[in-house]
């Protein structure tokens, strides 16, 4: 049975920026039973707008009879710090003021999030994580964790993610934040501030989540006589409105900033040196049509991890292929988990 809980940390929490949170909470779910040896833990780091109910958005991988089966595994997924699904975020009440943080919420990095996850792991008395898996933003967090606690993570699965956020992705995120800024309500200290801008931001993001071909297949106009109200235009508005009903502009703003600051090499000499610290046996999965986290980024990670295998998902869905192509993902991950651990003894010079 899937269970939702809240982990409370009541001490000052130092952030990478030098600022502090006066404590925090993480909402998390567990699914399955921890075995006697406590070595069947699967920890999931969710994507940008995801939540802790992993079967709702990765149901092809998680569930009875799936690759990650609660009858065999103890599955943990925590809502990211800064999120809006039960963990401390911009709409949470600041205990020092008695009012929601709103614009005063401090900037967070993936390293801050992983630090909070590590405290939750200790609270749950989990000495090791057998499989740590994440996609996109969740993959960034999983990689940070595998570097920071290399002895804890035994197997690592990164899907459609990277080691450093690209200038292209940062530019896309800034464009989305500009859309939020144009909303006249954005400066207000209310839960709904920036909601209209958020809809536009999400519509912009959808163009980077999907590909030219996926729009051509799914949103092509069927009536050649149409002069307005095009299917693709309605789709953009629908996606913006749908997210705005379950998200808020403050969280969206902070999570895009979190993505932008991602650089595993910060303070570790170089990105390559940081990747080389990972001890886990790793599976790196990329989507061939991904324009947001292109395949070259997964190839780079696979090249510099000491124990990595690279798999490529064939898809016309773009970045969202990491959520949609679950049959291919299941096949790749199942094969990886069945392999005996071995150390890579060569590093290719060209991809």
From TrEMBL:
Protein name, per record: Homoserine O-acetyltransferase
Active site residues per record: 136 (nucleophile), 290, 319
Entry's EC annotation: 2.3.1.31
Job description of the protein: Transfers an acetyl group from acetyl-CoA to L-homoserine, forming acetyl-L-homoserine.
Binding site for substrate: 202, 320
Keyword Translocase found: no
Residues covered by the AB hydrolase-1 domain: 41-323
Pathway(s) of this molecule: Amino-acid biosynthesis; L-methionine biosynthesis via de novo pathway; O-acetyl-L-homoserine from L-homoserine: step 1/1
GO MF annotation terms: homoserine O-acetyltransferase activity
Catalysed reaction, written as an equation: L-homoserine + acetyl-CoA = O-acetyl-L-homoserine + CoA
Superkingdom: Bacteria
Annotated HAMAP family: MetX_acyltransf
Organism: Nibribacter ruber
One GO location term (cellular component): cytoplasm
GO biological process: homoserine metabolic process; methionine biosynthetic process
Subunit annotation: Homodimer.
Keywords of the record: Acyltransferase, Amino-acid biosynthesis, Cytoplasm, Methionine biosynthesis, Transferase
Subcellular localization(s) per the UniProt record: Cytoplasm
Record-stated family: Belongs to the AB hydrolase superfamily. MetX family.
InterPro entries (UniProt xref): AB_hydrolase_1 (IPR000073), AB_hydrolase_fold (IPR029058), HAT_MetX-like (IPR008220)
Enzyme class, spelled out: transferase
């Amino acid at each position: 049975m899937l269970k939702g809980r809240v982990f409370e940390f009541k001490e000052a929490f130092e952030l990478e920026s030098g600022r502090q949170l006066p404590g925090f909470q993480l909402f998390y779910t567990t699914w399955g039973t921890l075995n006697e040896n406590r070595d069947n833990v699967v920890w999931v780091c969710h994507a940008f707008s995801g939540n802790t109910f992993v079967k709702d958005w990765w149901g092809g991988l998680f569930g009875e009879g799936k690759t990650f089966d609660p009858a065999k595994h103890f599955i943990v997924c925590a809502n990211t710090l800064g999120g809006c699904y039960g963990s401390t975020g911009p709409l949470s009440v600041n205990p020092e003021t008695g009012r929601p943080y709103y614009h005063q919420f401090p900037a967070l990095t993936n390293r801050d999030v992983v630090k909070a996850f590590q405290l939750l792991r200790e609270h749950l008395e989990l000495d090791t994580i057998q499989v740590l898996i994440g996609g996109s933003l969740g993959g960034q967090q999983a990689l940070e964790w595998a570097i920071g606690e290399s002895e804890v993570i035994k197997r690592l699965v990164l899907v459609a993610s990277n080691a450093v956020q690209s200038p292209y992705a940062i530019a896309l995120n800034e464009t989305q934040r500009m859309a939020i800024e144009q909303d006249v309500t954005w400066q207000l200290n209310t839960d709904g501030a920036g909601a209209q801008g958020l809809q536009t931001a999400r519509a912009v993001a959808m163009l980077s989540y999907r590909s030219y071909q996926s729009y051509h297949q799914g949103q092509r106009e069927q009536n050649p006589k149409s002069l307005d109200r095009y299917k693709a235009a309605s789709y953009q508005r629908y996606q913006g409105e749908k997210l705005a009903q379950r998200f808020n502009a403050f969280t969206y703003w902070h999570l895009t900033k979190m993505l932008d600051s991602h650089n595993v090499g910060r303070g570790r000499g170089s990105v390559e040196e940081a990747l080389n610290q990972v001890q886990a046996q790793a599976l790196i999965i990329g989507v061939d049509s991904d324009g947001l986290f292109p395949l070259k980024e997964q190839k780079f990670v696979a090249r510099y991890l000491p124990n990595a295998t690279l798999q490529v998902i064939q898809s016309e869905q773009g970045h969202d292929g990491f959520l949609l192509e679950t049959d291919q993902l299941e096949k790749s991950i199942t094969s990886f988990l069945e392999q005996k651990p071995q150390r890579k003894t060569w590093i290719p010079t060209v991809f």
